[in-house]
Amino acid sequence: MKPVELKKDIYWVGAIDWSVRDFHGYETPRGTSYNNYLIMDEEITLIDTVKYDFSDITIKQIKNIVDPARIKHIVINHIENDHVTSIDDIMALTPDATIHISARGKKGLDRFFDTSRWKFNIVKTGDTLKIGKHSLVFIETPMLHWPDSMVSFCPEANILFSQDAFGQHVASSARFDDEFDECVSPAVLDDAVIDYYANILMPFGKLILEKVGDLQKLGIQPEIIAPDHGVIWRKNPQRVLDSYVAMATSKADLRALIVYDTMWKSTEIMSNPIADGIRSEGVDCRVLKLRATPMNVVIKEFWKARGTLFGSPTLNNILYPSVAECLTHLRGLRPTNRLVGAFGSYGWGGGAVKEAYEVFAKMGLEPFEPGLQFVFKPSVEDEEKCYEFGQNFAKRLKEYHSGF
């Protein structure tokens, strides 16, 4: 692997993680990358580091360009482990380097390392670092997606180093969006952006709109957006900016999703006529069984659909564990502007459907009521009621969607 030039004297020196499939609980079937960048100038500057497992790779990448001992500045935009845990190895090779980091970033870094050995410059929004013919403007972006987060903008090259924002979990030999579109497909890249946003950045929609607005107020229209994961946006950076604005305003398609799990197939049997009823009203519907589907895929599909029905059997008078887990994930992601309902089966006593609606209320989502539940296996007559339930959900969904 060799460094890749973004613009003259600015290089990608990161690493590709082809094999990772579990990213702190987030399933990554396409792998990922850890991106960091080197600016060659009068004062050589490294922007971000990588996950510890790949420190030897980024060091080799840097050595292909320059002796690391010549690095004068290291910018840390974000201190999550996948971006900063190689800093100890990097600093051992850069004795004269100063770390530029937000105040919260410095406090966090102190918890991971003995930082008394290193030199720091605490930066805030608007601070500028002049390194020669290039400079870096720092913009704090707290809670996008950690309190320490910030981005760095190089006005001379018109490059925004955006840390986790605008990233994707994809491992690819293509470093840029145009290369990825050509060798894989634009649809795969767009899907990866949605998957990343839905599972990581969904809670921060209002903040994203604010920060995109801040960039516009500062007159920043980057020619290149260089995130810390996935491909670098150089052909059309506005593509990902527009995508984020749409997602931050809770954009969704007129489509339905059925998410369910089942013990003895009774709830599963209910899901099929419900889906048929939805489709009979001209609304597309996808059905996902939780134990057969990665959680991040469920969340991505939830995000795409304006309405979702959750199917759960009752176990010990409460939600089935996998359905409860899914709803817990969604509660933390704080979705908005979605229509939701519940259905399920039970044996001696119900409880799952009632609890689902209690969770919906806590999430502030629009409920489709009442839910639907049957004792044990649904009868033929019950399946007809499921079909009607699906029809009514689709009709309500079309009305609800028309308000957006």
How does this structure look, described?
This protein is of the alpha/beta class and 404 residues long. It has 2 domains: 4-248, Metallo-beta-lactamase, Chain A (4-Layer Sandwich); 257-401, 3-Layer(aba) Sandwich (Rossmann fold). The protein is 37% helix and 24% strand. The chain is built from 13 helices and 24 strands. Strand 10, helix 4 and strand 11 form a beta-alpha-beta unit. Helix 5 (177-183) crosses helix 6 and helix 11 runs parallel beside helix 12 (352-363). It is elongated and about 80 Å long. The model has no long low-confidence stretch (mean pLDDT 95).
Shape: elongated
Question: Given this structure, which CATH class of the largest domain is correct?
Answer: Alpha Beta
Which stretches of 5+ consecutive residues score pLDDT under 50?
A: none
Count of discrete domains: 2
Reported by name, the CATH topology of the largest domain is Metallo-beta-lactamase, Chain A
- State the CATH architecture of the largest domain: 4-Layer Sandwich
* Count of individual helical segments: 13
Largest sheet: 7 strands, mixed
Helix content: 25-40%
